[in-house]
Amino acid sequence: MDETNYPIERRYVAVRSNTRPGTRLITGCPAFLVAHDTGNPGAGADAHFRYFDTLRNRTASAHVFIDDKRILEIIPTGTGDQAAEKAWHVIRNVTTDNERFGYDANDAALGVELCYGGGIDFKAAYGRYVWYLSFCCRKWELDPSAHIVTHRQLDPMRKQDCEQSLAWGGKSFAELIADVRKAMAASSSSLPEQPASTPALPLPSKPQPQQPKLLQEIGDFLIVSYIQPARRFMLLAGDKAAAAHYERLAANVRGAAAGLSLPKSNCQEIIYNWLSPAWYKAKAEGRDPAKYHVMAEALRACAGIPAS
């Protein structure tokens, strides 16, 4: 996998209600990433900037366009000095994003577009696409398997992206996720060494317990109600890598019940993918949703995230 650190260009379209409403994501930082492609073979990032900067007759946009020459953010994403803003990249009446993450994608996610086809070098564009997704996952402690979703997965009756562009280049979505993981691992392993004159601090022989502990009944409930069913689903789907992710997630939840710190990405995954949708469902059905809020706050405490 290409370990290049690619430059990110930021050239924002004008604030206008149908393309860039100018309002922040309700989650502050992106809660998940939607992998798109342009569906416009041969058109690069610059062409899409020009299109959305002058678009008047329909509501649509995305945050980032990536081709074989550049990574171009046309709406603030939070990777630079400006806070992440909303874009109109998933039709609002689709509910899959709400059910899966607890938020509408336009309110909480980045739309990342791959440019492809025509004279665009797929390998070069794909390398930048993978790098950008891995950069975002590292920055916001997102897990690629849990927090990257395709437009097609959210709106399968209407959309084929980004699977159609990946297939055009001989790739699959599973390979994309695997390549994002490799890029993240390569970045982590390529951190600069300490100067020889500075003695390295000894690493602890094992993770050190931190308070507070996750209540055992909460941990057991999450594992039985969410993590184990998700693992079984991935095994039936033949996705062993994703199943292994849920095994690690269960181990980390058990560790939190023993007093170890819960990784922030694990906390976010459980809240966005399960507790938040469960809260909305309980409220809609007239049931008391408070227990889901209590569990979310307990997870945040174990991960060192301030209470909401």
Description:
- It is a single chain.
- This protein is of the alpha/beta class and 308 residues long.
- It is 47% helix and 8% strand.
- It contains 12 helices and 6 strands.
- It has helices spanning 45-54, 96-101, 105-108, 122-140, 144-147, 151-154, 163-168, 173-189, 216-236, 240-257, 264-284, 290-303; strands at residues 8-10, 32-37, 64-66, 71-73, 109-114, 148-150.
- The protein has a 6-stranded mixed β-sheet, with helices on both faces.
- A hairpin with a 4-residue loop joins strand 3 (64-66) and strand 4.
- Helix 4 (122-140) crosses helix 8 (173-189).
- The longest helix has 21 residues, at 216-236.
- The protein is globular.
- Residues 189-210 have low confidence and may be disordered.
What are its keywords?
6 strands; 308 residues; 6-stranded mixed sheet; alpha/beta; 12 helices; globular
List the SSEs and their pairings.
Layout: E1 8-10, E2 32-37, H1 45-54, E3 64-66, E4 71-73, H2 96-101, H3 105-108, E5 109-114, H4 122-140, H5 144-147, E6 148-150, H6 151-154, H7 163-168, H8 173-189, H9 216-236, H10 240-257, H11 264-284, H12 290-303
Helix pairs in contact: 4-8, 9-10, 11-12
What is the approximate shape? globular
Main sheet overview: 6 strands, mixed
Number of helices: 12
Radius of gyration: 20 Å
Strand content: 5-15%
Could you tell me how far the N terminus lies from the C terminus, measured between alpha carbons in angstroms? 38 Å
Order of helix and strand elements from N to C terminus: EEHEEHHEHHEHHHHHHH
> What is the helix content?
40-55%
Q: Please provide the count of β strands.
A: 6
Could you report the average pLDDT, rounded to the nearest whole number? 87
Side-by-side strand order of the widest sheet: 1-4-3-5-2-6
Structure class: alpha/beta
- Low-confidence parts: 189-210
